[in-house]
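>> Question from a student workshop board

For tomorrow's exercise we were told to take the sequence and the ligand below, predict the bound structure, and bring the output to class. My setup keeps failing. Could a helper post the expected result so I can at least see what it should look like? The ligand is iron/sulfur cluster.
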Amino acid sequence: MFCYQCEQTAKGEGCTVRGVCGKDGETAILQDLLIYATKGIAQYAHRAAQLGAVSRDVDVFVMEVLFATVTNVNFDAGRIAKMIQKAAAIRDQAKKLYETAAHAAGRKPEKLVGPAAFIPAADQAGLVKQGLEHGIAQRKEEQGPDITGLQELILYGLKGTASYADHAQILSVTDDGVFAEFHRILDYLADNPADINELTATVLKVGELNLKVMEMLDKANTTVYGHPEPTKVRVTPLAGKAIVVSGHDLKDLEELLKQTESKNINVYTHGEMLPCLSYPGLKKYKHLVGNYGGAWQDQHKEFAEFPGAILMTTNCIQKPADSYKERIFTCGLVGWPGVRHIDNRDFTAVIDAALAAPGFAENAPEKYITIGFARNAVMSVADKVIGAVKTGKIRHFFLIGGCDGAKPGRNYYTEFAQAVPDDCVILTLACGKYRFNKLDFGAIDGIPRLLDVGQCNDAYSAIQIALALAKAFDTDVNHLPLSLILSWFEQKAVCILLTLLYLGIKNIRLGPSLPAFVSPAVLQVLAEKFNIMPISSAQEDLKAILAS
Ligand code: SF4
Ligand code: SF4
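>> Workshop helper replied:
Here is what the output should look like for this input. Compare the format with yours to find the bug.
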C-alpha cells in the first residue's frame, strides 16, 4: 500500500505497511482500486452529461465512493470490495446512458479505454491484486512527485467536496451542473494528466466547485433545520441512559432523535456534531441534552468512559477499543470490521444497547459553552461588529480552525488562541475548536470574543462573514484585519483550502505540518502565488500578524 492523503501519514511521507489511522494494507489497496473504477464511471458520465443525459444513481454513487475513501471513514475491506463490484455495474449504467444519448444525438459513441474498461476480479484476493496495479506509488515512479502530487491534490479536494455534496443530497439538495463537474474532473484524472499548468488550474477549479457545494450544503441544512442561533449548550452529562452521536450528519441525528422520543434516553453530540445543538430543527428535541467530550482523537478515552451507546454517522472513527466495541455502531458510509452497521436509519439496535447500558448515575456539575455563530447570527449583529471595528474596540479577527488530530504540534492552536489580545475576536470552526472552546474569552461590547461558526461543513458561513465584512469596509478579504490560522488533517480541509485559494485569499498559515503530497516545487508555486506559509510558534506568528 501507499497512502499519503492525510496529515498523520507515516514519517510525513506516506503509510506503506499499515495506516497510522488503522487502515490495513488490503483496505488501502482496495480503496485505490475503487477510485480507479470510479474514474471509469466518470469517463462515461462526463460524456453523457455533455449530451444532457444524467442519472442520479450514478451521481450519488460517485459521491459515496469519494466520501467512503476519505480518511477515517470506512476501514471495512469487505464493504469496499462490494463497492468495487457495484462500481462496475454503475459504470455499465453510465455507459448505456452515454451511448443512448450519443445515438439520439446522431453521433457514434466513443470507445473508451483505461478505467472505463475495467473488469473487476471475482473475489477479494483478485481485487487486491488488481488494486496493486493502480496505486499511487506506481504513478509516482512513472510521473514523478510533482505531477502525482498535483493529481492527488485534485483527487483529495474532490473527496472532501464529495462529502459535502453527499450531506447535501441526503437533504435533497442536488445540482446537475455540480455532479457534471465532478465527472469532468474525474474523467480528466482518468488520463493521468501531466501538464503542470493545466493541473494547477484544475486545482483551483476544485476550489470553485467546493464553494458551490458548500453553498448547497448550507442551503440544505438551513432550509431543513433553520439557521443556527446562539445557544448555551451543556457540556457535562445528566443522570440517565445515554446515546452519543459523532460524525457530521444532521439527518442521522434527527432520525435518531425521533426514534428515541419518549424512550427516556438522553442524546449527546460528540465532536463535529456539537453545532447541531444550535439548529432550531434539532434543538427542539428536549432529550438532545448537550455535548459529551471533545474532538475525534479523544474517542478512545471518552467512549470507553461513556456509559451508553455510541453512533458514528461519518468520520472520524478510530479503531474501537474492546471496552466499547459492543456499544458502538456505524451508519451511512462509515465502517469498521466487526462493528455493527445500521442500515436505512433504523436505530433500534442502538436504542437497545443504550437501554442495556448503565447510563450516567448522576448529574455532573453544570458547565456550559455558547455556540451557534453561523453567518445568519453574525450578520444580525453586523452593525455592532462594524461599529466596534471602526471605533478601534475590535483590532483584528483571527479565524483559528480546521480539523484536529493527536500530534503534540497541535498545541500551537491552543497557545495561539490564548495569546490573542483582548481587543481581538476569534472565529472558529471544525473540530480544531476543541483545543480552546471551553476557555472563557469574555466579550467586547457584548460581542463574544470567541464565535463558534460550526462544523468544517460550515466553512461557507465563515467565508460569507468575511465577504460581508469586506463589503462593509469597501475592500477585499485580503485587506481586512483578518488572519486565517488553519489546522488541516484530511481531505475536507484540503477542499476548503482550495476554495480559499480560488477566492484569492492570501497569507494563510497552515499547520501543524504541510501535506506530504504537495511536493517542494508545488509548494513553492503556492507560496509565490498565495503567500501560504507553515505555522511557526504561536508568539512569533501573532507578533508578525499584528505588526503587518
Ligand atoms: S489516511 Fe492517512 S493515516 Fe490513513 S493510511 Fe492514508 S495517509 Fe496513512
Ligand atoms: S473536522 Fe476533520 S478531523 Fe475533525 S471530525 Fe471532521 S473530518 Fe474529522
